[in-house]
Amino acid sequence: MELTDQTFAKSSLRRDSGPFGRARPRWGEKILERIFAICASISILTTAGIIGVLIFETAAFFQEVSLWDFLTDTQWTPLFAQKEFGIFVLISATFLTTVIALIVALPVGLLAAIFLSEYASEGLRKALKPALEILAGIPTVVYGYFALLFVTPILKTFIPGLAGFNSLSAGLVMGVMIIPTIASLSEDAIYAVPRSLREGAYALGATRREVITGVVIPAALSGIVAAFILGVSRAVGETMIVAIAAGQNPRMTLDPTVPVQTMTSFIVQVSLGDTPTGSLEYKTIFAVGMTLFLITLGLNIGSHWFVRKFREVYE
Amino acid sequence: MSTRNLAATSLEPSWSAVRGIRRVWDRIFGPLSLIATLLGLVVLAALLIDVFSDGLPRLSWQFLTSFPSRKPEEAGLVSALVGSILMIVVTAMVAFPIGVGAALYLEEYASDNAFTRFVEINIANLAGVPSIIYGLLGLEIFVRVMFSITNGRTVVSGGMTMALLILPVIIIATREALRAVPNSLRQAGLALGASQWQVIRDHVLPQALPGTLTGTILALSRAIGETAPLITIGALTYIAYLPPASPEALRTPFTVLPIQIFNWVSRPQKGFHEAAAAGIVVLLVVLLAMNALAIYLRNRYQRRAV
Question: Which of B24, B29, B161 is the best substitution to test chain A (most A C-beta atoms within 10 A)?
Fold first, then answer.
């Protein structure tokens, strides 16, 4: 600890400068505390702002479009003369890209977490973990470029009927993007499983793989599922990869080889055009945003609930 | 006795088969998980090689100093570079003081009451909101409601939207840095008669500053690469002039690196794809420099703490 003479001199000087020494009321201190409290409440204002703005514009949207049509229509054509607002068209595309991403990210992320915590030496772990986390730091627009101009041409050589824009390559690249999310959080959960559990299983004659899949993974399951749900939430909200590589064609399909439009890429499409505020298109992106917000909020709450409910606590 | 022996011998072959399968599984599982770990790194390598081989030939002084153009070979990204720098300055000036203030309140002043717990849950939830939703918030509040201050789809609107986006990250990083400051330091300061703010300003904050700066730089590097919220608030994709060298520059329309890249990727011509790759190289170099600075600060801090 370096408490220099200077520091002492400074504070004693300041104390002597007041007319009544340390008994003087410190209004500045009180005001500063208030200012810091206001800073802390800005995060609450942000949440309130998001919810307020979404509710306000979505309510205006539902004055012109009925909720029933929104939920049951099978067409999504808000930018055409004949307007249809079937949100499930966009949800199906979001669902499709998310599922493809998870088919990649779940097994790869979980196996990577197992390798890092159970097999890798401490040195290897310290080298591999930050390297893997670089994947989470790459801007998503770069992944979009990679999906459209590198992955899609390669996939085309295997799948002749693949369209230039498709949910397959967007989903695969998105999967790579969320590998670190799933790997890192799962690894924390696996790492927290106490050694005694592993040793007990070894003592019963289990092999290393059996200890991992039979004891360690079940013990860490709540953390792994939470990581998985957060991965889903990131995939659902991901924008640039799907906007660049998956196309802008709203259609209700589970065919991964054709262009589709997700909720996020619809918001991008409308925002790129010159949409006057207050128009129906303007309100539509808020209604879509509200749907997106509710889905991700549900996933985040679900993940917290799952951890609390199924967490195994070891002494 | 004899029946037991019989049972044992008849079971013997199937047991060894089971043991064989167990051995095989055990042999495979380790390498399999290693392959999974390396898969992500292989894709990362492929991505970097692809981008650099497409982009490096296109990178030149002309590219860095030209405005966007209809002709791919003349296009450059000077307006996007200037826009990114301006926006990140606004973001830092808004997010850093508010983030540090909020963290100071939660760590140094507030007691553990319902309000602080609510703020904590709220910050955790905000970190999980998709970035494009922040764009919708910025569009309505900064572009529309505060039009007279921000002048609409301008640098200051974009910078403030980004500030809200990265605020949770800065608050969480600063709180961790504050928590690492030993309590004995605070008690020593208070015992010598310093006020709480004097202790924070002269002792706690200087100790926590490297950790705070590291977190802030990492958060800002996220803001530089973020695209979706800025598209939503309507950052333009074609800016063929530089903003004036006055505070009024903050109230002019702007573009940033990722939006310029997005614009070039979306075009069919191959020339623009090369420009996009060159733009990505510039973006990655900027991010690398910021991360290197953050790591340098962290290492310096760790050395001093010993």
Answer: B29
Nearest chain A alpha carbon to B206: A2
* CATH code for residues A87-310: 1.10.3720.10
pTM over cut 0.90: no
Q: How many CB pairs under 8 A join A and B?
A: 264
Interchain contact A227–B (C-beta under 8 A): no
* Chain A contact for B146 (CB, 8 A cutoff): no
Residue B70 belongs to what domain range?
A: 61-305
ipTM for this prediction: 0.88
For an interface test with B, the pick among A13, A115, A236 (most B C-beta atoms closer than 10 Å) comes out as: A115
pLDDT attached to residue A21: 52
Which residues, listed in sequence order, are joined to residue A85 by a DSSP beta bridge? Answer: A76
Q: Is residue B2 part of a domain?
A: no
B111 pLDDT band (50/70/90 cuts)?
confident
Contact status of B25 with chain A (Cβ, < 8 Å):
yes
Identify which has the larger pLDDT, B114 or B90.
B90
